[in-house]
Design goal:
Structural class: mainly alpha
Number of helices: 2
Shape: rod-shaped
Radius of gyration: 34 Å
Number of strands: 0
Distance between the termini: 96 Å
Strand content: under 5%
Length: 87
């Protein structure tokens, strides 16, 4: 996969000047910080999404309960009217 010429072009960090090593280390640190921030934002977005799914599920359950309650109340009202009509 690698040819010999490309391997010969590699320079060890130990063979590089101090300033160049510092610059490479600084760039690596900046990139690392960017990656950490990205992962933290991604983690937060996932947590928010899961929380939204839970909230949506709770909202659906509350909605179903409200519908059942409404249907029960309407049936009771209908029963009252039918019993009044019978009398």
């Amino acid at each position: 996969m690698y040819n010999e010429r490309s391997l010969e072009n590699l320079i060890s960090l130990a063979d590089r000047p101090l300033e160049e090593r510092r610059e490479i280390a600084r760039m690596g640190g900046l990139t690392s910080g960017e990656r950490k921030r990205y992962r933290a934002q991604l983690r937060l977005a996932m947590i928010e999404h899961l929380a939204a799914l839970d909230l949506a599920q709770e909202t659906r359950e509350e909605y179903r309960r409200a519908i059942r309650r409404y249907v029960r109340e309407e049936r009771k009202k209908a029963e009252k009217w039918t019993t009044r009509e019978r009398l």
